[in-house]
Design brief:
It is built from 23 helices and 20 strands. It is α/β, with parallel strands linked by helices and 580 residues long.
């Protein structure tokens, strides 16, 4: 007798599909157009449904989960404002090639286009900031669309897929069949490397006198850190990273030079400016790393490996383009490489590192001392950052290795990312310490997620570097806008003097009181004003295993991130200290 498929609702098929895709954690917020999906999830023991306090916090948490585990992050929200609240997180993840599948509720298909209550065209809104976006119009297309969504999100250059689910499709009955094998017409991820181009690249590198590797986030996305470290050590070629590439080789490795770019180290920027072969893997050459394009690596021939063909020669014209997955290309290179005779070049780079280290001094509670204490106390950890000065200091001073990850918003630079992404990272890595490094401004953008961390008993450690300013913008105002601190003082009151640009002890108290606010949520809190208390505060937080701990570090109000390349200048034109 022929066995036919069982008839189930679209909502029930949605749950079955998640289980078939091995989704164990779902970041979800209910609403009218997804109530059937939540009903189908009710009592489901194989899927942990996490309820954050805002949809933006929700998608950043899914992002942190995906980056820290290598799995796809999965979101579920209702239509209208539920869907539009995902937009910033969709762009954040897609810029940084993070695999997310975002399900949004939608009004019934017969109401689409009629300005129904909480109806928005989320597919139209997100098409330019996602890898793929689609509305499921028929119940019979549901299974294939969900399978396609996970496949597209996680293959090739990973990204965000948005699947819009009308309410009538969720309720309609149909087959329970879910087929994992799929072919998507017009979409074929590249799983090979052109050996002719790779041989040319190796020949160019082999004849170089002053070569460098420039490594971006693509190496980490490909999970090729181990192979990249082997490649560097076998050739002896120095390694420079973008912010997103930091950790591609351990930062304690003697071949690691530092970050490149506007806030790159003197040694890294100088090496790029003076090298004769620049071998880049997994970077888009965006404006934050190149400085003045006409003078970027002006003396070098450039090799570029990237999985995304559209990224090659878009910003910087290269000599040898190679479209390939970073790990596949690096493994192929490992079969042919040998040590290069470049000792004079590596000695020169080491002299630059010794002569011009990034050092904030030894007095007071400095970001450098805070982050170096994090290095000392936490050996197996995920560290997330917000955006601004806190992010840049972390990328300068944090040790990153196979046991210590750094998650940060690179391409979009999204304030409010750090804390909720740490929630996702902790849910995905319950046995690891998870530390947030945030500024006082960015912390307040998604501070409502403190409730999420408390109710799910997540012992995240939140380090707030509080200088009372939106520090990164204030720094630019100080250096390039005659100290006109326009709308960057976080202690401002309406009664304050107009045009004030001189912080003093008479300034109003900071709002909010982070210590009291954390305690009101049920978290532990500590305020650190003395350098000698930094490490003890971190050790105390490490012992708190049931609730989050907020540590507020009071830092100098006008401390700057140095060095800096002024806008429009080349990487050679660095301001090394605030005194300059």
């Amino acid at each position: 007798m022929e066995i036919t498929d069982r008839e189930i609702t679209g909502a029930q098929l949605f749950v079955k599909a998640l289980k078939e895709e091995a989704v164990s954690t779902l970041f979800a917020y209910p609403g009218g157009q997804v109530i059937d999906l939540f009903h189908a999830l009710y009592g489901e023991k194989d899927i942990d449904v996490i309820l954050p306090r805002h949809e933006q916090g929700l998608i950043h948490a899914a992002d942190g989960y995906a980056r820290s585990t290598g799995k796809a992050g999965v979101c579920l929200v209702t239509s209208g404002p539920g869907a539009t609240n995902l937009v910033t997180g969709i762009a954040t993840a897609n810029y940084d090639s993070v695999p997310l599948v975002c399900f949004t509720g939608q009004v019934p298909t017969n109401l689409i286009g009629n300005d129904a209550f909480q109806e928005v065209d989320i597919v139209g809104i997100t098409r330019s900031i996602s890898k793929y976006a689609v509305t499921v119009r028929k119940r019979e297309d549901l299974a294939e669309t969900i399978r396609k969504a996970f496949y597209i999100a996680t293959t090739g250059r990973p990204g965000v897929v948005v699947v819009d689910l009308p309410k009538d499709v969720q309720r309609a009955y149909g087959s329970d069949h879910y087929q994992k094998e799929i072919v998507v017409r017009g979409y074929k991820p590249n799983n090979s490397v052109n050996m002719g181009q790779l041989n040319k690249a190796w020949d160019m590198l082999n004849h170089a006198q002053k070569p460098v590797f420039l490594i971006g986030g693509g190496v980490k996305i490909a999970h090729a850190q181990k192979e990249m470290t082997q490649l560097a050590e076998l050739t002896g070629v120095p390694v420079i990273t973008t912010i997103m590439g930091k950790g591609a080789i351990p930062t304690t490795n003697s071949l690691y030079v530092g970050n490149i770019g506007i806030h790159g180290s003197y040694a890294a920027n100088s090496a790029i400016s003076n090298c004769d072969v620049l071998f880049s893997i997994g970077t888009r050459f965006n404006d934050r790393i190149t400085g003045k394009i006409e003078e970027f690596a002006a003396n070098a021939r450039i090799i570029h490996i990237d999985i995304d063909a559209s990224s090659i020669s878009r910003n910087i014209v290269v000599d040898i383009p190679i479209v390939a997955d970073a790990k596949i290309a690096i493994c192929a290179l490992l079969e042919k490489v040998k040590p290069l005779q470049i000792s004079k070049w590596t000695e020169q780079i080491n002299r630059w590192k010794m002569a011009y280290p990034i050092d904030m001094g030894k007095i007071g509670v400095t970001p450098q001392r805070v982050i170096q204490s994090v290095n000392d106390v936490f050996k197996d950890a995920v560290v997330t950052t917000d955006v601004g000065q806190n992010q840049l200091w972390t990328t300068q001073f944090l040790d990153v290795s196979e046991n210590k990850q750094m998650l940060t918003s690179g391409g979009l630079g999204t304030m409010g990312y750090g804390f909720p992404s740490a929630i996702g990272a902790k849910l995905g890595n319950p046995d690891k310490d998870v530390i947030v490094i945030s500024g006082d401004g960015g912390m307040q953008m998604n501070i409502q997620e403190m409730a999420t961390a408390v109710v799910y008993e997540l012992p995240i450690i939140i380090c707030i570097l509080n200088n009372g300013y939106l520090g990164n913008v204030r720094q630019w105002q100080e250096l390039f806008y005659d100290r006109c601190y326009s709308s960057t003082c976080m202690r401002y009151r309406r009664s304050c003097e107009t045009g004030c640009n001189t912080p003093s002890h008479s300034c109003p108290a900071y709002t909010p009181d982070f210590v009291a606010l954390a305690e009101s949520y049920g978290a532990k809190s500590i305020c650190v004003t003395k350098a000698e208390d930094i490490k003890s505060a971190l050790l105390s937080a490490k012992q708190n295993t049931k609730t989050p701990t907020v540590i507020e570090f009071i830092i100098d109000r006008e401390v700057n991130v140095m060095p800096i390349v002024p806008p429009g200048n080349s990487l050679n034109d660095m301001i090394l200290t605030s005194e300059e």
